[in-house]
Write a structure and sequence with these properties.
Blueprint lengths: L2 E7 L22 H18 L2 E8 L8 H11 L2 E6 L4 H7 L1 H15 L8 E6 L3 E2 L2 H10 L4 E5 L8 E9 H7 L3 H9 L4 H9 L8 E2 L8 E2 L3 H15 L5 H13 L3
Helix pairs in contact: 1-2, 4-7, 7-8, 8-10
Length: about 260
């Protein structure tokens, strides 16, 4: 059985309020045409896996995707339905709440506006230009054990954060626990870390046999931008040790105590 995949991203960061880092301001990581090539390559990769019969790419800078027709032809040849959703993110809220609002807004937009998501009962989500090299093993594992909803959190201190870069959810679960609720939670608690928001919203409801915090198969990520790759690989190593992301962990604790959650 083939699955549905939601890919999210931002082709031109400074189109929607995300400001360039002073450290990486001159890096090709922020070049929209280079990022466009990375997104093209990522979507191409997932089409070619032939693990998905529906792929949605939701992007929040509304930057022209000039090679989309090539991906549509490839998808057609592989028997994959492909959908492109683009909009301008809420610049004021993104500047104020940064990454947390930035991505939560994309999730909700896709959930509300995607025709393909409305045709399925569950879907995988991958952030940015992340290629999960062992996605086939993960899907096979989830199908074997009938895991319909999957969010990964680490161990040790990292158990207080839930990864938002890769997860699986049903339409019903997302609507009940995350749709509009994550955005509202971000504004109510003034948090900038979506990992914290997901953890605090989901910590009491991912305890039944149809859902899971972990999998025996750890996702193997591939990153395009080399500086970003170094950063992410470093964070991944810390995460395995239970110490990443410290800022997200502290945010979870702060919000939990301050708002008595």
């Amino acid at each position: 059985m083939k699955e549905t995949l939601l890919l999210t991203g931002t082709i031109k960061p400074n189109n929607n309020g995300i400001q360039r880092s002073t450290v990486l301001s001159n890096d090709k990581y922020f070049d929209p045409e280079y990022r466009l090539w990375e997104y093209f390559s990522t979507i191409q990769y997932y089409i070619n896996t032939q693990l998905f019969d529906k792929i949605i790419f939701c992007e929040n800078s509304n930057y022209h995707f000039n090679n989309w027709a090539l991906l549509e032809q490839l998808a057609y040849d592989k028997g994959v339905q492909l959908e492109l959703l683009q909009f301008y993110g809420d610049e004021i809220s993104i500047k104020k709440y940064w990454y947390a609002y930035w991505e939560a807004e994309i999730f909700d937009y896709a959930f509300k506006n995607s025709q393909l998501l409305q045709q399925t009962t569950s879907w995988y989500k991958v952030t940015w230009r992340y290629i999960i090299k062992n996605i086939d093993q993960i899907i096979n594992y989830h199908q074997k054990w009938s895991i319909t909803t999957f969010f990964y959190k680490g161990w040790g201190l990292a158990q207080f954060g839930v990864t938002t870069a890769f997860f699986k959810t049903t339409q019903a679960f997302y609507e009940e626990h995350l749709y509009k609720k994550a955005v509202k939670y971000i504004k109510d608690t003034n948090t900038r870390f979506l990992e914290s928001v997901f953890y605090l919203l989901l910590k009491d409801c991912l305890l039944n046999q149809r859902t899971s915090w972990k999998t025996k198969i750890v996702p193997i990520y591939h990153f395009f931008s080399w500086k970003k790759a170094k950063i992410e690989v470093y964070k991944a190593r810390l995460w395995l040790l239970g110490f990443w992301p410290i800022a997200s962990i502290l945010e979870s604790i702060r919000v939990a105590i301050w708002y008595k959650i």
